[in-house]
Amino acid sequence: xxxxxxxxxxxxxxxxxxxxxxxxxxxxxxxxxxxxxxxxxxxxxxxxxxxxxxxxxxxxxxxxxxxxxxxxxxxxxxxxxxxxxxxxxxxxxxxxxxxxxxxxxxxxxxxxxxxxxxxxxxxxxxxxxxxxxxxxxxxxxxxxxxxxxxxxxxxxxxxxxxxxxxxxxxxxxxxxxxxxxxxxxxxxxxxxxxxxxxxxxxxxxxxxxxxxxxxxxxxxxxxxxxxxxxxxxxxxxxxxxxxxxxxxxxxxxxxxxxxxxxxxxxxxxxxxxxxxxxxxxxxxxxxxxxxxxxxxxxxxxxxxxxxxxxxxxxxxxxxxxxxxxxxxxxxxxxxxxxxxxxxxxxxxxxxxxxxxxxxxxxxxxxxxxxxxxxx
Length: 375
Hints:
Number of strands: 12
Family: Belongs to the glycosyltransferase 28 family.
Subcellular location: Membrane
Keywords: Glycosyltransferase, Transferase
Protein name: Glycosyltransferase
Protein backbone atom coordinates (compact mmCIF):
# COMPACT_ATOMS: atom_id res chain seq x y z
CA UNK A 1 0.00 0.00 0.00
CA UNK A 2 1.35 3.43 -0.93
CA UNK A 3 -0.76 5.79 1.19
CA UNK A 4 -0.09 9.49 0.77
CA UNK A 5 2.36 11.08 3.17
CA UNK A 6 1.90 14.84 3.46
CA UNK A 7 4.57 15.87 5.96
CA UNK A 8 8.03 14.33 6.19
CA UNK A 9 10.52 15.24 8.90
CA UNK A 10 14.25 14.70 8.33
CA UNK A 11 16.30 14.63 11.55
CA UNK A 12 19.97 15.13 10.67
CA UNK A 13 23.01 17.11 11.86
CA UNK A 14 25.75 19.24 10.32
CA UNK A 15 28.59 16.93 11.37
CA UNK A 16 30.51 17.31 8.15
CA UNK A 17 28.20 16.92 5.14
CA UNK A 18 27.56 13.16 5.08
CA UNK A 19 24.45 13.06 7.26
CA UNK A 20 22.87 15.98 5.41
CA UNK A 21 23.77 14.44 2.04
CA UNK A 22 21.89 11.30 3.08
CA UNK A 23 18.96 13.45 4.14
CA UNK A 24 18.86 15.32 0.83
CA UNK A 25 18.78 12.04 -1.08
CA UNK A 26 15.89 10.82 1.06
CA UNK A 27 14.07 14.14 0.64
CA UNK A 28 14.31 13.82 -3.14
CA UNK A 29 13.05 10.24 -2.97
CA UNK A 30 10.16 11.20 -0.66
CA UNK A 31 9.00 13.98 -2.98
CA UNK A 32 9.11 11.58 -5.95
CA UNK A 33 7.11 8.99 -4.01
CA UNK A 34 4.58 11.41 -2.50
CA UNK A 35 4.16 14.40 -4.84
CA UNK A 36 3.15 17.48 -2.94
CA UNK A 37 4.60 16.31 0.37
CA UNK A 38 6.36 18.96 2.44
CA UNK A 39 9.75 18.15 3.95
CA UNK A 40 10.98 19.81 7.14
CA UNK A 41 14.46 19.47 8.60
CA UNK A 42 15.73 19.53 12.16
CA UNK A 43 19.43 19.66 13.03
CA UNK A 44 19.77 17.46 16.12
CA UNK A 45 22.80 19.31 17.48
CA UNK A 46 21.16 22.72 17.10
CA UNK A 47 18.02 21.47 18.82
CA UNK A 48 20.08 20.03 21.69
CA UNK A 49 21.23 23.52 22.64
CA UNK A 50 23.28 26.56 21.75
CA UNK A 51 26.92 25.69 21.26
CA UNK A 52 26.34 21.91 21.18
CA UNK A 53 27.07 21.64 17.47
CA UNK A 54 30.44 23.43 17.52
CA UNK A 55 31.56 21.52 20.62
CA UNK A 56 30.58 18.11 19.22
CA UNK A 57 32.24 18.87 15.88
CA UNK A 58 35.41 19.96 17.68
CA UNK A 59 35.41 16.76 19.75
CA UNK A 60 34.94 14.61 16.65
CA UNK A 61 37.64 16.31 14.57
CA UNK A 62 40.06 16.39 17.51
CA UNK A 63 39.50 12.70 18.21
CA UNK A 64 40.08 11.68 14.61
CA UNK A 65 43.08 13.92 13.98
CA UNK A 66 44.78 14.20 17.37
CA UNK A 67 43.63 11.46 19.72
CA UNK A 68 42.47 8.53 17.55
CA UNK A 69 43.33 6.15 20.40
CA UNK A 70 40.62 7.81 22.52
CA UNK A 71 38.09 7.50 19.72
CA UNK A 72 39.04 3.83 19.28
CA UNK A 73 38.67 3.25 23.03
CA UNK A 74 35.16 4.74 23.04
CA UNK A 75 34.18 2.75 19.93
CA UNK A 76 35.49 -0.54 21.32
CA UNK A 77 33.78 0.11 24.65
CA UNK A 78 30.41 0.48 22.92
CA UNK A 79 30.85 -3.01 21.51
CA UNK A 80 32.50 -4.62 24.53
CA UNK A 81 30.18 -3.37 27.28
CA UNK A 82 26.48 -3.53 26.44
CA UNK A 83 25.61 -1.64 29.61
CA UNK A 84 27.88 1.23 28.52
CA UNK A 85 26.28 1.43 25.08
CA UNK A 86 22.76 1.31 26.51
CA UNK A 87 23.51 3.90 29.21
CA UNK A 88 25.16 6.24 26.70
CA UNK A 89 22.27 5.93 24.27
CA UNK A 90 19.66 6.49 26.95
CA UNK A 91 21.48 9.58 28.25
CA UNK A 92 21.78 11.12 24.80
CA UNK A 93 18.27 9.97 23.92
CA UNK A 94 16.73 11.76 26.90
CA UNK A 95 18.74 14.91 26.16
CA UNK A 96 17.87 14.99 22.46
CA UNK A 97 14.34 13.62 22.90
CA UNK A 98 13.22 16.26 25.40
CA UNK A 99 14.56 18.98 23.10
CA UNK A 100 13.00 17.45 20.00
CA UNK A 101 9.58 16.88 21.58
CA UNK A 102 8.13 20.36 21.15
CA UNK A 103 9.54 20.78 17.64
CA UNK A 104 8.23 17.44 16.44
CA UNK A 105 4.81 18.11 17.97
CA UNK A 106 4.64 21.47 16.17
CA UNK A 107 5.59 19.94 12.80
CA UNK A 108 3.14 17.03 13.17
CA UNK A 109 4.89 14.81 10.62
CA UNK A 110 3.39 11.75 8.99
CA UNK A 111 6.81 10.14 8.66
CA UNK A 112 10.16 10.75 10.38
CA UNK A 113 13.55 9.93 8.87
CA UNK A 114 16.78 10.10 10.87
CA UNK A 115 20.22 10.23 9.30
CA UNK A 116 22.16 10.95 12.50
CA UNK A 117 22.52 8.50 15.42
CA UNK A 118 21.95 11.03 18.19
CA UNK A 119 18.78 12.10 16.41
CA UNK A 120 17.62 8.49 16.31
CA UNK A 121 18.32 8.20 20.04
CA UNK A 122 16.03 11.18 20.60
CA UNK A 123 13.31 9.68 18.42
CA UNK A 124 13.47 6.42 20.37
CA UNK A 125 13.03 8.38 23.59
CA UNK A 126 9.93 10.04 22.11
CA UNK A 127 8.59 6.64 21.06
CA UNK A 128 9.14 5.15 24.53
CA UNK A 129 7.28 8.07 26.08
CA UNK A 130 4.31 7.80 23.72
CA UNK A 131 5.15 11.00 21.85
CA UNK A 132 5.96 9.61 18.40
CA UNK A 133 2.95 7.72 16.97
CA UNK A 134 4.05 7.95 13.31
CA UNK A 135 6.56 5.74 11.43
CA UNK A 136 10.16 6.59 12.25
CA UNK A 137 13.24 5.05 10.67
CA UNK A 138 17.01 5.49 10.57
CA UNK A 139 19.19 5.32 7.47
CA UNK A 140 22.58 4.06 8.67
CA UNK A 141 24.94 5.65 6.15
CA UNK A 142 28.06 4.11 7.69
CA UNK A 143 28.66 0.86 5.84
CA UNK A 144 29.34 -0.90 9.17
CA UNK A 145 26.68 -0.23 11.84
CA UNK A 146 27.83 0.40 15.40
CA UNK A 147 25.79 0.32 18.63
CA UNK A 148 25.00 4.06 18.59
CA UNK A 149 23.36 3.68 15.17
CA UNK A 150 20.81 0.93 15.88
CA UNK A 151 17.62 1.22 17.98
CA UNK A 152 15.04 -1.39 18.84
CA UNK A 153 12.06 0.91 19.44
CA UNK A 154 12.02 2.69 16.12
CA UNK A 155 10.26 1.09 13.19
CA UNK A 156 13.13 0.39 10.80
CA UNK A 157 16.93 0.53 10.82
CA UNK A 158 18.14 0.56 7.22
CA UNK A 159 21.67 -0.65 6.48
CA UNK A 160 23.65 -0.41 3.25
CA UNK A 161 24.39 -4.06 2.46
CA UNK A 162 23.18 -7.52 3.39
CA UNK A 163 26.48 -8.17 5.18
CA UNK A 164 25.67 -5.24 7.51
CA UNK A 165 22.51 -6.92 8.85
CA UNK A 166 24.45 -9.28 11.12
CA UNK A 167 26.47 -6.56 12.91
CA UNK A 168 23.33 -4.40 13.19
CA UNK A 169 21.52 -7.21 14.99
CA UNK A 170 24.57 -7.77 17.14
CA UNK A 171 24.21 -4.13 18.23
CA UNK A 172 20.58 -4.59 19.25
CA UNK A 173 19.28 -8.18 19.02
CA UNK A 174 15.78 -8.25 17.62
CA UNK A 175 15.89 -4.73 16.19
CA UNK A 176 13.92 -4.22 12.95
CA UNK A 177 16.63 -4.13 10.25
CA UNK A 178 16.35 -3.98 6.45
CA UNK A 179 18.72 -3.32 3.54
CA UNK A 180 18.38 -0.02 1.71
CA UNK A 181 19.55 1.26 -1.63
CA UNK A 182 22.45 3.69 -1.10
CA UNK A 183 20.92 6.99 0.06
CA UNK A 184 22.60 9.20 -2.52
CA UNK A 185 21.20 11.83 -4.86
CA UNK A 186 19.86 10.55 -8.17
CA UNK A 187 22.68 12.14 -10.19
CA UNK A 188 25.12 9.69 -8.58
CA UNK A 189 24.68 6.86 -11.05
CA UNK A 190 26.75 5.07 -13.69
CA UNK A 191 27.48 7.32 -16.65
CA UNK A 192 29.76 8.10 -19.56
CA UNK A 193 33.24 8.54 -18.10
CA UNK A 194 34.70 10.04 -21.27
CA UNK A 195 31.93 12.63 -21.50
CA UNK A 196 32.41 13.52 -17.85
CA UNK A 197 36.16 13.94 -18.38
CA UNK A 198 35.62 16.17 -21.38
CA UNK A 199 33.21 18.32 -19.36
CA UNK A 200 35.66 18.64 -16.45
CA UNK A 201 38.81 19.08 -18.52
CA UNK A 202 40.38 15.79 -17.39
CA UNK A 203 42.63 13.77 -19.72
CA UNK A 204 40.77 11.06 -21.60
CA UNK A 205 43.45 8.37 -21.46
CA UNK A 206 44.61 8.82 -17.87
CA UNK A 207 43.85 6.69 -14.83
CA UNK A 208 41.82 9.14 -12.72
CA UNK A 209 41.99 8.63 -8.96
CA UNK A 210 39.45 10.80 -7.15
CA UNK A 211 40.60 11.47 -3.58
CA UNK A 212 37.66 12.57 -1.45
CA UNK A 213 37.70 12.44 2.34
CA UNK A 214 34.50 14.30 3.09
CA UNK A 215 33.78 17.98 3.49
CA UNK A 216 36.30 18.21 6.35
CA UNK A 217 39.08 16.73 4.24
CA UNK A 218 40.92 15.13 7.12
CA UNK A 219 43.12 12.08 7.26
CA UNK A 220 46.32 11.32 5.35
CA UNK A 221 45.23 13.10 2.18
CA UNK A 222 48.68 14.53 1.39
CA UNK A 223 50.26 11.09 1.65
CA UNK A 224 47.56 9.67 -0.62
CA UNK A 225 48.28 12.30 -3.27
CA UNK A 226 52.02 11.63 -3.08
CA UNK A 227 51.58 7.86 -3.35
CA UNK A 228 49.26 8.19 -6.30
CA UNK A 229 51.67 10.44 -8.17
CA UNK A 230 54.43 7.87 -7.68
CA UNK A 231 52.27 4.86 -8.50
CA UNK A 232 52.28 5.14 -12.28
CA UNK A 233 52.87 7.93 -14.85
CA UNK A 234 49.29 7.52 -16.15
CA UNK A 235 47.72 8.31 -12.77
CA UNK A 236 46.06 11.72 -12.42
CA UNK A 237 45.04 12.34 -8.79
CA UNK A 238 42.07 14.68 -8.34
CA UNK A 239 42.00 15.75 -4.70
CA UNK A 240 38.79 17.25 -3.32
CA UNK A 241 39.75 19.32 -0.27
CA UNK A 242 36.16 20.19 0.56
CA UNK A 243 35.95 23.03 3.06
CA UNK A 244 39.47 22.36 4.33
CA UNK A 245 41.32 25.35 2.89
CA UNK A 246 44.35 24.55 5.04
CA UNK A 247 44.68 21.21 3.24
CA UNK A 248 44.44 22.92 -0.14
CA UNK A 249 47.18 25.38 0.80
CA UNK A 250 49.44 22.56 2.01
CA UNK A 251 48.97 20.67 -1.26
CA UNK A 252 49.44 23.70 -3.51
CA UNK A 253 53.29 23.45 -3.70
CA UNK A 254 53.03 19.78 -4.70
CA UNK A 255 50.49 20.66 -7.40
CA UNK A 256 52.85 23.32 -8.74
CA UNK A 257 55.66 20.76 -9.01
CA UNK A 258 53.43 17.96 -10.33
CA UNK A 259 50.94 19.24 -12.94
CA UNK A 260 49.15 15.88 -12.96
CA UNK A 261 47.76 16.70 -9.50
CA UNK A 262 44.42 18.52 -9.63
CA UNK A 263 43.17 20.32 -6.52
CA UNK A 264 39.54 21.20 -5.85
CA UNK A 265 37.87 23.02 -3.00
CA UNK A 266 34.16 22.72 -2.39
CA UNK A 267 32.43 21.65 -5.60
CA UNK A 268 28.90 20.88 -6.73
CA UNK A 269 30.28 18.66 -9.50
CA UNK A 270 30.95 15.59 -7.37
CA UNK A 271 28.63 13.34 -9.43
CA UNK A 272 30.55 14.20 -12.61
CA UNK A 273 33.94 13.78 -10.94
CA UNK A 274 32.89 10.42 -9.53
CA UNK A 275 31.71 9.17 -12.93
CA UNK A 276 34.93 10.48 -14.53
CA UNK A 277 37.10 8.59 -12.04
CA UNK A 278 38.53 5.11 -12.39
CA UNK A 279 38.67 4.71 -8.60
CA UNK A 280 37.59 6.69 -5.57
CA UNK A 281 40.11 6.97 -2.73
CA UNK A 282 38.61 7.74 0.67
CA UNK A 283 39.15 6.93 4.35
CA UNK A 284 35.85 6.81 6.22
CA UNK A 285 33.38 4.72 4.20
CA UNK A 286 30.36 6.95 4.70
CA UNK A 287 28.61 9.09 2.09
CA UNK A 288 31.62 9.30 -0.25
CA UNK A 289 31.92 5.52 -0.40
CA UNK A 290 28.19 5.12 -1.06
CA UNK A 291 28.32 7.71 -3.85
CA UNK A 292 31.22 5.83 -5.46
CA UNK A 293 29.31 2.54 -5.33
CA UNK A 294 26.20 4.17 -6.80
CA UNK A 295 28.33 5.28 -9.77
CA UNK A 296 29.85 1.80 -10.13
CA UNK A 297 33.33 2.89 -9.08
CA UNK A 298 35.78 0.75 -7.07
CA UNK A 299 36.75 2.16 -3.68
CA UNK A 300 40.26 2.22 -2.25
CA UNK A 301 40.21 2.82 1.51
CA UNK A 302 43.50 4.58 2.24
CA UNK A 303 44.56 4.51 5.89
CA UNK A 304 40.99 4.40 7.24
CA UNK A 305 40.34 6.80 10.09
CA UNK A 306 39.91 5.44 13.59
CA UNK A 307 36.94 3.44 14.85
CA UNK A 308 34.04 3.61 12.40
CA UNK A 309 36.37 4.29 9.45
CA UNK A 310 38.31 1.07 10.03
CA UNK A 311 35.10 -0.89 10.60
CA UNK A 312 33.54 0.47 7.39
CA UNK A 313 36.68 -0.39 5.42
CA UNK A 314 36.79 -3.95 6.72
CA UNK A 315 33.13 -4.63 5.95
CA UNK A 316 33.33 -3.07 2.47
CA UNK A 317 36.36 -5.26 1.73
CA UNK A 318 34.47 -8.32 3.01
CA UNK A 319 31.65 -7.46 0.60
CA UNK A 320 34.12 -7.21 -2.29
CA UNK A 321 33.44 -3.52 -2.77
CA UNK A 322 36.72 -2.00 -1.58
CA UNK A 323 40.43 -2.61 -1.20
CA UNK A 324 41.93 -1.55 2.12
CA UNK A 325 45.30 0.22 1.84
CA UNK A 326 46.42 0.64 5.45
CA UNK A 327 50.22 0.73 5.13
CA UNK A 328 52.78 2.76 3.22
CA UNK A 329 52.88 1.77 -0.42
CA UNK A 330 49.66 -0.25 -0.46
CA UNK A 331 47.66 2.46 -2.22
CA UNK A 332 50.24 2.74 -5.00
CA UNK A 333 50.39 -1.07 -5.28
CA UNK A 334 46.59 -1.33 -5.51
CA UNK A 335 46.47 1.26 -8.28
CA UNK A 336 49.26 -0.45 -10.22
CA UNK A 337 47.43 -3.76 -9.90
CA UNK A 338 44.22 -2.26 -11.29
CA UNK A 339 46.09 -0.66 -14.20
CA UNK A 340 47.92 -3.92 -14.97
CA UNK A 341 44.79 -6.05 -14.71
CA UNK A 342 41.70 -4.29 -16.12
CA UNK A 343 39.73 -7.44 -15.33
CA UNK A 344 40.17 -6.78 -11.61
CA UNK A 345 38.92 -3.22 -12.04
CA UNK A 346 35.95 -4.46 -14.04
CA UNK A 347 35.06 -7.05 -11.43
CA UNK A 348 35.04 -4.46 -8.65
CA UNK A 349 33.03 -2.00 -10.74
CA UNK A 350 30.49 -4.70 -11.60
CA UNK A 351 30.22 -5.71 -7.92
CA UNK A 352 29.38 -2.12 -7.00
CA UNK A 353 26.80 -1.81 -9.78
CA UNK A 354 25.31 -5.21 -8.95
CA UNK A 355 24.95 -4.31 -5.28
CA UNK A 356 23.21 -1.03 -6.01
CA UNK A 357 20.83 -2.58 -8.53
CA UNK A 358 19.99 -5.48 -6.20
CA UNK A 359 18.80 -3.17 -3.43
CA UNK A 360 16.15 -1.52 -5.63
CA UNK A 361 15.11 2.12 -5.47
CA UNK A 362 15.49 4.34 -2.42
CA UNK A 363 11.73 4.87 -2.53
CA UNK A 364 11.21 1.20 -1.64
CA UNK A 365 12.72 1.76 1.81
CA UNK A 366 10.45 4.77 2.32
CA UNK A 367 7.40 2.73 1.33
CA UNK A 368 8.42 -0.04 3.71
CA UNK A 369 8.84 2.47 6.53
CA UNK A 370 5.52 4.19 5.86
CA UNK A 371 3.74 0.83 5.99
CA UNK A 372 5.13 -0.16 9.41
CA UNK A 373 2.26 1.46 11.34
CA UNK A 374 -0.63 0.82 9.01
CA UNK A 375 -3.55 -0.95 10.59
